[in-house]
Structure formats: C-alpha cells, structure tokens
Design brief:
- With 330 residues, this protein is α/β, with parallel strands linked by helices.
- It folds into 2 domains: 168 residues, D-Maltodextrin-Binding Protein, domain 2 (3-Layer(aba) Sandwich); 108 residues, Periplasmic binding protein-like II (D-Maltodextrin-Binding Protein, domain 2, 3-Layer(aba) Sandwich), CATH 3.40.190.10.
- The chain contains 11 helices and 10 strands.
- Strands 1, 2, 3, 4, 5, 6, 7, 8, 9 and 10 form a 10-stranded mixed beta sheet that branches.
- Helix 2 packs across helix 9.
C-alpha cells in the first residue's frame, strides 16, 4: 500500500515538473488570448495617432485579436508613457511614441519612469522630416523672407507645436538659435490642434510632422516654405530643405518607436517584433508612409535601444544649450 502511495506521489511530482517546464513556452505560443491595448500618448488626429491606427489595424490582422488604440494625451506624451511603464509586462499593453517623448522629455520633466530602464524595446518604426509651413496670410514665400520678417518683428509671430519639447518646439528653438530670431512658442496637447489653428489663422508658423501636414500643403490650405530633414521629400520634391533655403547645417527629423513595459517576456517581445517587422515590409504600409515623406526604419530591439540612448544624449545637450524649460506645471 505504501509503495503504491509512493509511486503515485512520484508520478504526480513528475507530472507537475513537466507541466512547469512546458507552461512557459505554451503560454508564449498562446499569446495573445485577449485584445491588446496600443497606447498613443497624444490626442486623436495627430501623426502618431494616424500611424498608430494604421499599424494597429495590421497588427490585429496578424495577431488574430483586437488591437484597441488608447489615446492618452497630455504632458507631452508622459501620461501615456507612464501608463505603459506601469502596466503588467504581459504583452497586452504597448505604446508608440515619438522622439520628443522618448528623448527630449527626460531632460524637461521629473518623470515617474526612466525611458531606458522601464520599457522593453520592440521596434523603431519610421523617421520623418518636418515641414515648415505658414498661414497663407503671412507675407513670406521663402525661409529667407521668414527670417527677415521675424527679425523685423521680434516676438510678434506665433509658432505652434505638440507641446514643450515636442518635435515642433525643438525645431522652432533650433531655427531661432541658428537664425538669431525670436518667435512666441504656443504649445498644444498634440500637433493636430496646432495644425487646425494654423489653418484657421490663429497662429502664423508651424514646424510639423510631414505625415499630417503634406495633405494640407497639397490642398493649398497652408504655405510650405521648406522641409526640416537633411534631404528633400520625394512627395514635395520642389521644396528645398531649410538648410538649402538659407540656414546651412539645419536638420531635425521626427521618429517613432514601439515598446512595452520593462520585463516583457522574450517570447512575447520576439512575437511582437516579428509581427511589426512584417507590417513594416507590407507594400501598403510602405506606400502610405512614402506618400507623406516618412521613411520606414525597422531593425532589431537592440538597435532601437542603442539609438534611443544616443538620442537621449544628443537632445540633452540641445535642451541645455537652448535653455528650454518645461511648461508650468509640466
């Protein structure tokens, strides 16, 4: 009787050990078994939201689960980033954010998270030069004319951005430094309302992501003066870069990347990286990016993490030299 009980206990222990050994891989293979939350740390309508929804739709098809875009705008993207950093590392909460949120905000705010330590890198998505645009009522048709006007009327022209430290703000500060001009910065919660106000004539100048701005340029609702990248945009090939148009050495581009909370299991990180890599090679996604001047990047999680480290260091120097401060209460 005792021998039978001993053998039964031994069999149960062996079964439990086998279950423990196989549970991890099985769970990884089963992922996902419920909808995935895709955090966009900006309000709807901006370039990150447009890109997030574009990618989220494709990700849902590949995962066989709903991907729910969760817009958490405010504080230059910090609210959505904190939400993601503090979420369970189970693959059901991921975030897409831009250079300002990833690499500039750490130098402006006392953050409840660390961008290098509190996230699991998945993939860098794309890079996109901005477009310098003005309201049609502004009496300039070139960068040189804008510089002359800004010098003649210091602190009279208003330029908008997605918020303090955002792409538009950094672009504007860099422009002011390199041209010895002064304009008033008007921060918004996202680039979408800043573009809306430019079209309405509430602000005069905007350095904005090409993804959402190019359609307004093509429709004639804003006047484009130049692009902010090192090379011209194929979609606006007649438009010079800011460097070509009279500010030698000027270059600033936005980029976006996807990550999850720190501690994401390697199997889930690998699955998400695989699916996003597939999405970024999709001809439809590539065309939709190239149509607005964005360049697909891709690459490994390790490559994104190394790039992020370099960008954090680079923008730390710029924030210090330009004397950029966080907004009151930011």
């Amino acid at each position: 009787m005792k021998n039978r009980q001993y053998r039964s206990a031994a069999v149960s222990a062996a079964a439990a050990s086998l279950l423990a050994l196989t549970a991890g891989p099985a769970l990884g293979q089963a992922y996902p078994v419920k909808p995935v939350r895709f955090v966009v740390p900006f309000v709807p309508g901006g370039p990150t939201d447009i890109q997030g929804r574009m990618l989220g739709e494709k990700l849902a098809q590949r995962l066989g689960q709903q991907v729910l875009v969760d817009n958490r705008g405010g504080a230059g993207g910090n609210i959505g980033m904190e939400l993601t950093a503090k979420a369970p590392p189970d693959g059901y909460t991921i975030v897409i954010a831009t250079v300002g949120t990833w690499a500039v905000n750490p130098h402006l705010y006392k953050l409840p998270f660390d961008v290098m330590r509190d996230f699991t890198p998945i993939i860098q998505v794309s890079t996109s030069p901005g477009v310098l645009v003005v309201h049609p009522s502004v009496p300039v048709k070139s960068v040189k004319e804008l510089v002359a006007l800004a010098r003649a009327r210091p602190n009279e022209l208003n330029y908008g951005s997605s918020g303090v430290g955002g792409f538009g703000h950094i672009s504007g500060e860099l422009f002011a430094l390199m041209t010895n001009t002064k304009m008033i910065h008007v921060p918004y919660k996202s680039s979408a309302p800043s573009l809306t106000d430019l079209v309405a004539g509430q602000i005069q100048v905007l350095f904005n992501n090409a993804i959402s701005t190019v359609p307004f340029v093509q429709a004639g609702r804003v006047r484009a003066l130049a692009t902010s990248g090192a090379k011209r945009l194929a979609v606006l090939s007649d438009l010079p870069t800011i460097a070509e148009a009279g500010v030698p050495g000027y270059e600033n581009s936005s980029w976006s990347a996807v990550a999850g909370p720190a501690g994401l299991p390697p199997a889930i990180q690998g699955r998400l990286h695989k699916e996003f890599t597939g999405i970024l090679t999709d001809p439809d996604i590539q065309k939709r990016h190239s149509d607005v001047g964005a360049q697909i990047i891709g690459g490994s999680p390790e490559q994104f993490h190394a790039y992020l480290k370099a960008e954090v260091e680079k923008f730390g120097k710029l924030v210090k030299s330009a004397g950029i401060k966080a907004a009151s209460g930011g």
